[in-house]
Amino acid sequence: MIVSQYYLECLSHASYLVGDETSGTAVVIDPRRDIAEYVADADRLGLRITHVIETHLHADFLSGHLELAAATGAQIVFGEAAPVEFAATKLPDGAWIDLGHVRLQILATPGHTPESICITAYDSPDAKEPECVFTGDTLFIGDVGRPDLLASVGHTAEDLGRMLYRSLREKVMLLPDATKVYPAHGAGSACGKNLSTETMSTMREQRALNYALQPMSEDDFVAMVTEGQPAAPGYFVYDAITNRKERALLDESQPARALSLLEFDTAVAEGAVVIDTRPAMDFAAGHLLGSLNVGLDGRFAEYAGSLVRPDSPMVLVCEPGAEQEAVIRLARIGFDGVVGYLSDPLAAMAENPERVERSSRLTVDQLREALNTTPDLQLVDIRNPGELAIGVIEPAVALPLGTLTSHLDELDPTRPTVVYCAGGYRSSAGASLLRTHGFDDVSDLLGGYAAWEALAH
Question: How far is it, in rounded angstroms, from Cα 191 to Cα 186?
């Protein structure tokens, strides 16, 4: 049995190619939307992709099942509870997919979503125990899938939490100790709160180390897995709904379009949002008025998807050569409205200095002085709820970046404002968002709370 893991750090997303060398067939589990790597690897290994299996309707990325089916003729497979609107095979609990020597079994494991499944893989027809299990968002390394996402419309967090408790204890935890665990996400994903940086484990390790698998009552489990979850990024509901539907296919070979300044300005006049993908320090040194800063060096798609509407046209400002990556990363969450990117942005800014502004970034010492000398200073903490337990800078108001757009009315645009996060990446994005909404005096904290805490000792 061949198992290849594909891990996207920018989305903390893991997908898998599982192949049977004897029959030359393979499945892809939870694929991303840009599918060229799966197809190329299958060709290299002499495998034909026959099935695309989704463990559930994902909310944090747009799945590649339609692209893979179109490219390879593969059959799309979901659990039988999946409410999809395209041609797909829905398999019940206990159903098998035979690749030849390799056999896969569907385990219905509702909880993260009602239609969630896990997939056990056996490496020979007479194997009594599974070699591995692909757990989707049911079981992570160190955590379990959160049951409170809005993608599960019609179900409360408590209902889903109780489903998850039973799925784990009646299905997943019955697997043998040696079974390898391959989840759909790792550290940084908003689909859980305590995910490990490890991308695979065993059932033995998870039984011993995963807080959610320890002995506890159902009520205690529900309380524990719903408390302290990160704010769901704004695009999650859009992706969860779009993943149910027929939609346009991604052509990842289509190059990003270079725009002259006149074409760029025309797109902006027609409603396009300007996303500057350069690092925060470069953005602070000078950027076009009205730009959002979401650095490509971080969780670019996740935060762009929180600050921009899915149907918005977008124009990009990028470091040379980074344009195509930015377009693909936006496409992975279903944001296909990129009109193009500004050709030679540094020259455009140099030739039009009246259109350029700098961003204010404060050191810890400067923030301390501002807190002492500016009585009406508005301090905004845009970290997630779980991060606040580490400590806060008083008197901050907590508004996670993922939900900041929908809570702007809780802030006063006339007051001097300082935004901070954990390390300075998100705060540049948050501060730039406030500027585009009429906040005139906005700074962010260099180094974030980590720098504040380091200088407090």
Answer: 9
> Where exactly are the structural domains of the chain?
2-242, 258-357, 360-454
What are the catalytic residues? 421
Q: What pLDDT does 449 receive?
A: 97
**Contact in structure between 376 and 415 (CB atoms under 8 Å):** yes
Residue 143: exposed, middle, or buried by beta-carbon count in 10 A (0-12, 13-18, 19+)? Answer: buried
Residue 274: phi and psi, rounded to 5, are -90, 120
Domains 258-357 and 360-454 in one fold: yes
Cβ atoms within 10 Å, residue 272: 21
2-242, which class in CATH? alpha beta
Torsion of CA 401, 406, 412, 415, to 10 degrees: 30
Please write the tens of the pLDDT for every residue from 229-248: 887 888 999 999 999 999 99
**Residue 457 clears pLDDT 80, i.e. is over it:** no
pLDDT over 90 at 223, yes or no: yes
The answer to whether residues 70 and 249 touch, using CB atoms and an 8 Å cutoff, is yes
Cβ atoms of residues 129 and 176 within 8 Å:
yes
- 360-454 has CATH 3.30.420.10 classification: no
Are the beta carbons of 5 and 16 closer than 8 angstroms? yes
List of E strands, 179-280 = 180-183, 201-202, 258-259, 273-276
For residue 150, is pLDDT > 70? no
Task: Output the pTM of the full model.
Answer: 0.94
How high is the pLDDT of residue 275? 98
| CATH level 2 (architecture), domain 258-357 | 3-Layer(aba) Sandwich (3.40)
Task: Please provide the DSSP assignment of 96-107 as one string.
Answer: EEE-SS-EEEEE
